[in-house]
Design brief:
globular; mainly alpha; about 140 residues; Serine Threonine Protein Phosphatase 5, Tetratricopeptide repeat
């Protein structure tokens, strides 16, 4: 919890700026790291405090992964839902691929995939294939 407390302190004392939070010079930004490691409180704090928009949430790291890739791959469902809600993400956003041609849905755990399907973010595999083929 020390890491979480340190980040919270940096945010509330205005040491961290929006530019710092979204900076990908070291490969990935802070939003990506908080999402992949399951720090819901930090992810929410970063989104709310810095008023992160869809454009901010969709910033990729050096491998083309966005925060949603990280949260989906580690089954951090609360963060997945937070990113989708706060970023106003659509099915097309969920299906954006990284540099390895994998979407957030592709890397999601089984449980996360089932939830995304249940919540109608993704209908089923046939709809996904149809949607993807339209963009090829």
């Amino acid at each position: 919890m020390e890491l979480v407390d340190n980040i919270r302190t940096l945010v509330y004392t205005n040491v961290l700026t929006k530019i710092d939070v979204l900076n990908t010079n070291n490969g990935s930004n802070l939003l990506y790291w908080s999402s992949i490691y399951g720090y819901y409180d930090i992810t929410k704090l970063l989104i709310d405090k810095f008023d992160l928009t869809k454009i901010d949430i969709m910033i990729p790291n050096k491998n083309g992964k966005i925060a949603l890739h990280g949260a989906c791959s580690r089954n951090h469902l609360a963060i997945v839902l937070l990113l989708i809600d706060k970023g106003n993400l659509t099915k097309k956003d969920i299906m954006i691929c990284n540099n390895y041609s994998k979407s957030s849905y592709d890397v999601a755990t089984f449980e996360t995939k089932m939830y995304l399907q249940k919540m109608c973010y993704i209908e089923d595999i046939n709809d996904m294939i149809y949607d993807i083929v339209q963009y090829i």
